[in-house]
Amino acid sequence: MTRTHPPLDPELTAVLTFVHEHLSPSITAEDIEELRANSMFAVADEDLTRNGTVELQNFSISGPPGAPKISLLVLRPVGLAAGAPVFYYMHGGGMIIGNSRTGVGSVLDWAVDNGAVVVSVEYRLAPEHPDPAPIEDCYAGLLWTHEHAAEIGGNADRIVVAGASAGGGLAAGVALLARDRGGPRLLGQLLMCPMLDDRFVTLSSRELDGEGIWDATSNMTGWNALLGERRGGGDVSFYAAPARATDLTGLPTSFVDVGSVETFRDEDIDYATRLLQAGVQCELHVWPGGFHGFDGMAPQASLSQTASATRAAWVRRLLAVG
Length: 322
What we know:
Distance between the termini: 49 Å
Number of domains: 1
CATH architecture: 3-Layer(aba) Sandwich
Strand content: 15-25%
CATH class: Alpha Beta
Number of strands: 8
CATH superfamily: Alpha/Beta hydrolase fold, catalytic domain
CATH topology: Rossmann fold
């Protein structure tokens, strides 16, 4: 097959070769159980408390009506003054793997650097819990965070939703729900390589076959787990697949970024473009030669350093004026 996507960043090529020895780019439903048991998703308390400089709390809260309780992980730098900004975080994992600790370290960096609280939600995973369970869990966690902001040292009027991959899609869906249900007024949304579209209508959603991270097969696995037979059809809520939303007005200031060599590239560019066209302030970055999740898998690479610094700079500007 002739390659149609841009070339990988040379510094990331060797990293991807190593990653492929431990993680297949093509995930099927049969791989889910093994992936969930993978130690790469295990994050110890010590990694989050950072030598005692960060306090860690776990809360069990009421979920959506008729659903089980939800766990929230709250991380707060020691000595943080009351009324701090809050990052409400949704983890990645294609809707099928991961937990509230997955990838939260980068968000904790922003909290430490800017004096903020992190709340990370443990939402139910598909296929055992298909749509709307994940998005409704995330929205219930946002409502709790808003109502109990003072209790955890935060400011209810300064909440930023953030997420990567599937978590980025959930963050976008939560922002839409908050707008449409008259929920918390958000300060911003930070969408890192978000998973937004179940329809496979873009070129990038089809061009990776056994390449990169989270190729077309993996994406089909994730969306099928979440939506089942509804995937790609007319009976899918835009809260589950935010790319389907036709009205993006009234959403908070946004940041969207994505690698040029990943499945979500085109849908993310389109979403950011339509946010701008809807009058929403939005910053978009397409990282040249970046594969899905490159900055987490190769944090020392030059492109990863640039991407991380760019997100951190956006966060600082947002909190300075918000």
